[in-house]
Amino acid sequence: MNRLISAVLSLGLLSVLGWSGSRGGVWDETAGALPSPEPYVTLLDMHPVQESNYTQAAKPIMMAMPRVIRQGVTGLPDPRQVEVPAVVTPEQRAEEDPGVAIGKAGTGFFIASDGTLLTAAHVVNGCGRMQIISKYVARTWVSLVAADAAHDVAVLKAPDLRSPAVVRLADAPPSTGKLFILGFPESASLTAPAETWGVPENDKFPANIGPMANPRDLLWMSAPEVTHGYSGGPIFDPRQGAVVGLVKGEVDGGYLRLVRDMPTTGIAIGPGIQHIAALLRREVPYASVNLVSSPGEAGQDTLRRATVHVLCWH
Question: Element (H or E) spanning 246, and its range?
């Protein structure tokens, strides 16, 4: 989304645009487009990390704990960031250590065997240096290959790295059922992502409002556990055995009250497969992407191995 505008409109304007108090305060589908085409969105790249969250597997890695300057709030995203942990692996030369610097963190996942991965564009926006790390990937520098800021998708590349696992991008949007989501919130360790589930909510919108309700363009999910640190994380459909989108942010509850039967809290959104696939075709047609689906628990395990923590320093 290029613009983030308020979903709080005056009663008079709501009446003009289709708000019907007689229908219990919901959007009148006969009126056409929703009164606010773009809701307030809180980007989910900023998150604190505590030493106690790290697992025993991560103990050999030395780090400086980050200091939260200000956590994001529902509304316009706060431009201030957090200090990201400085991670020193045994094989790293001292001069390569970025130290403790102002930056941000999020999540990414491999989509090709040559070290090509995806994340959200806002996670890597303004980054001077970027790294990834996971249980299966030692601390590794990555570079930005391409980004679609309008739809919040970015392609990164880890040179000379063979991806530990690769996930397939879906050909179709999710229909029904739960979606599996991975990310690195405060509750996760440095190297192992947290796991949660979401339920698609695109069908709550009237069909005539256009691309915003199309899950191929923008995926709406009820996912209360998705919070700061999940940005760029994969949204996986276990039935298809493929990724159907990636996490962008959470939506202002005031906007959600305008949509009939839509939960007013815990709604996360992210770009769908149409914009992800378009960026890959345009910018990295050479990438050795995975064409094999892996449904069910096997696919979830593949996703765990393909997901990484993305660290960014300004």
Answer: strand 242-246
Q: Which domains does the chain have, with CATH numbers?
A: 9-37 (no CATH), 39-314 (2.40.10.120)
**Model confidence pLDDT, tens digit, residues 183-230:** 999 889 999 999 999 999 998 888 777 777 889 999 999 999 999 999
Q: Which of 284, 281, 286, 303 is nearest to 294 (CA)?
A: 303
How would you list the strands of the sheet with 234-237, edge to edge? 41-43, 249-251, 267-271, 218-222, 194-200, 179-183, 234-237, 242-246
Q: Tell me the C-alpha distance between 87 and 267, whole Å.
A: 33
Higher pLDDT among residues 101 and 314, named by residue: 314
Residue 39 banded pLDDT, cuts 50, 70, 90:
low
According to DSSP, residue 300 is labeled H
Residues 6 or more apart whose CB falls under 8 angstroms from that of 79 comprise: none
Mean pLDDT of 26-34: 46
Question: Distance (Å, rounded) from C-alpha 131 to C-alpha 87?
Answer: 10
Residue 29, classified by CB atoms within 10 Å of its CB into exposed (0-12), middle (13-18) or buried (19+), is: middle
285-311: per-residue pLDDT in tens? Answer: 877 676 777 889 999 999 999 999 999
Non-local (6+) Cβ contacts of 212 within 8 A are 34, 37, 38, 205, 218
What pLDDT is recorded for position 287?
A: 73
Cα–Cα distance for residue pair 13/291, rounded to 1 Å: 49
Distance of CA 109 to CAs 81, 112, 134, 301, Å?
22, 9, 10, 13
d(CA 256, CA 66): 33
Once rounded to an integer, what is the mean pLDDT over residues 260-281?
91
